[in-house]
Design brief:
Shape: elongated
CATH topology of the domain at 2-68 and 99-111: hypothetical protein PF0899 fold
Strand order of the largest sheet: 2-1-6
CATH class of the domain at 2-68 and 99-111: Alpha Beta
Structural class: alpha+beta
Number of helices: 2
Number of strands: 6
Bound molecules: zinc ion
């Protein structure tokens, strides 16, 4: 399933970032999800919560999924926007520049207090 692969990638990415930064807990993960990525954010969030269930690093972690509008351009060079099907300039078919990707944009962590 598409969503479980995505949830796993998010988990692996956040876990690596958390360990590299000496985190004791991951508080919040911000994810941008392209409108054309064809994922169900609710399902990703659910699968993610199941995946991290036994990982104390992720106790109570909030996964914030934001959907971002796609960006299309046309070969005529006269168009950049979010119209998926028709270039307003030449009537041609625009192509996708952005909108299929799923990106971790932020990762908020708790770090153990370093003794002075
Ligand atoms: Zn065009």
């Amino acid at each position: 399933m598409h969503e479980s692969g995505i949830a796993y990638d998010l988990y692996a990415t956040a876990r690596r970032a958390a360990i590299e930064n000496g985190a004791t807990r991951v508080i919040r993960i911000g994810v941008e999800c392209g409108a054309l990525a064809m994922v169900n954010p609710e399902q990703v969030r659910f699968l993610f919560s199941v995946m991290v269930e036994d990982d104390p690093l992720f106790a109570g972690t909030v996964l914030e999924m934001a959907t971002v509008a796609p960006v299309m351009t046309c070969a005529c060079g006269g168009y950049e926007g979010d119209d998926l099907f028709v270039c307003p300039g030449c009537g041609g078919l625009p192509s996708v520049v952005k909108g299929r990707e799923i990106v971790v944009t932020s990762c908020e962590i708790d770090v153990e207090d370093v003794p002075a």
